[in-house]
Design goal:
Elements: H1 3-8, E1 13-14, H2 18-35, H3 42-52, E2 62-64, E3 68-70, E4 76-78, E5 82-84, E6 88-91, E7 96-98, E8 103-104, E9 109-111, E10 113-114, H4 119-122, E11 125-126, E12 132-133, E13 135-138, E14 141-143, E15 148-149, E16 154-156, E17 160-161, E18 166-167, E19 172-173, E20 181-184, E21 189-193, H5 200-203
Parallel strand pairs: 2-5, 3-6, 4-7, 5-8, 6-9, 7-14, 8-15, 9-16, 14-17, 15-18, 16-19, 18-20
Antiparallel strand pairs: 1-13, 10-13, 11-12, 20-21
Helix pairs in contact: 2-3
Amino acid sequence: MTEYERMRLGRIYDCMDAELGKAQAESRRLCEAYNALGADDGEQKQALLRQMFPDQDFGRFRTLEAPIYLDNIREIRIGKNFYANIYFSFIAGGQVEIGDNVFVGPFCTLATGIHSLLAEERRLTVDEDGSLHDFEYGRSIRIGNDVWIASNVTICGGVTIGDGSVIGAGSVVTKDIPAGVLAFGNPCRVQRALTEQDSMYLRAQR
């Protein structure tokens, strides 16, 4: 079994593996090219996004405001009508699945890689030939349809966020969030269910 296969199965793997390194380098080059484009280069941005996410249905639009950082584009799937504000980051180690009609605020991170809590297990190891090894594992993140993630949110590996929920600004999400709720905090906790009284047309009049 390759290290890449071990990673996808959620097992401990060597993140210094050459195949993984090649995939990450490819992803980072595409992100660098995307981030170098200007505000008026919309068609070129869309072409690059389609290169990054082949065989994915963009719906009516897919917008990622530069800069972006996607550690391994092979391991993230994004649904229709997706919008991410500036500094959207995906740190690989596990997979990410994002549903349809998801909005992400600025400075948000999806972090699927997990290092050991024990210092001796986190240290790089070196073979006799000088080869470096760095062992970790990952847990996937799943974000449902119609989710809004506000600014400066970190979502940790192993988390699922249910359809229609809202994650408030500055949250650190370490546990699953059910559908249809407002959740925020560090650690992020469910505050209450969302209702018709949360309509912006009502709230703007208050």
